[in-house]
Structure prediction request, 346 residues.
Amino acid sequence: MTSRLNISCRLFLLAAGAMAASGCSSGPRTAGERAVPVRAVTVVADEQGAADREYIGVIEEESATALSFPVQGTVASLTADEGQRVGQGRVLARLDERNLQSVYNGAQASLAQAEDAMKRLQLLYDNGSLPEIKYVEAQTKLEQARSMEQVARKNLEDSRLVAPFGGVIGKRAVEAGENVLPGQTVCTLLKTDAVKVKIPVPENEIAAVEPGKKARIAVAALGGRTYDGVVKEKGVTANPVSHTYEVRIPLPNPGGELMPGMVCRVALEGDTSARAIVLPSRAVQVTGRGDRFVWCVRDGKAAIAPVTVGALTGDGVAITGGLTDGELVITDGYQKVSEGTNVEVL
Prediction:
């Protein structure tokens, strides 16, 4: 009986030792661990920098002035049509000047009468035959007549609407026979010797646009003709609806072929001061805190590499920091690796 108990105890101890040995052998393996197959790409920076950004723009005049008569009256004639190019000093419209002419003629007559009276009274005053008060009254009437004549002459001259500079008639707001008030717009005059290309830039891209950045403008209405320009104006107030900022690029237009309202395609040069690294979007992972990282292959093992990302491109996402030339970045199979996992690049 005692021998049987001893045998049972020995078997139990042997089984327990085997279980302990198997438990110890299930720990991490390094030298003999099987490598996880992955696919990777070698990091190569683009020497040309980030890709150009394209926008849809519209051509607008260098300046637009609303022209109006400073006096009230009836429009007698309009001498320039919409779209017509006019030179500086060209008469664009006229008011019916008959009433103004009559007022001017009356003012001239009053001035002539006051001047004649002043001459007569001057002789009496010089001889001491005219009281001082009468002489002062005559001088006052003469000055009043001169002022009235000047006002009447100015109103008569203002019955003609003259182009203050050379340009193109944009839009006529009145027609012949209409009554107009002082300051009421008759037509707009556009200055188009130089034009501006206006483009809306989204708020997440406006920081990359600065005055001096080169641009290439293609105008479809002119058969795709291209023009080179430089950004001059950068808006600082966003459109509350589209959340875009206005950027303007001036262009010379001596021939007048560029017309306000033409739609164009604008390509702003990329950031050539930095070397761009572009990776497939799937290779960039996000932590729970929103940090971006990629899996790299270093000394045959998987390693986490925090990165900073830029804009999306047609080939993937731009990496602006965290990687150097020659590094291997895992693009497929990263789901099976962790820090320090042996990997095999296929």
Q: What stands out?
A: Residues 50 and 271 are 5 Å apart (CA to CA). The longest strand covers residues 185-202. The two ends are 65 Å apart (CA to CA). Helices lie at 2-25, 98-126, 132-157.
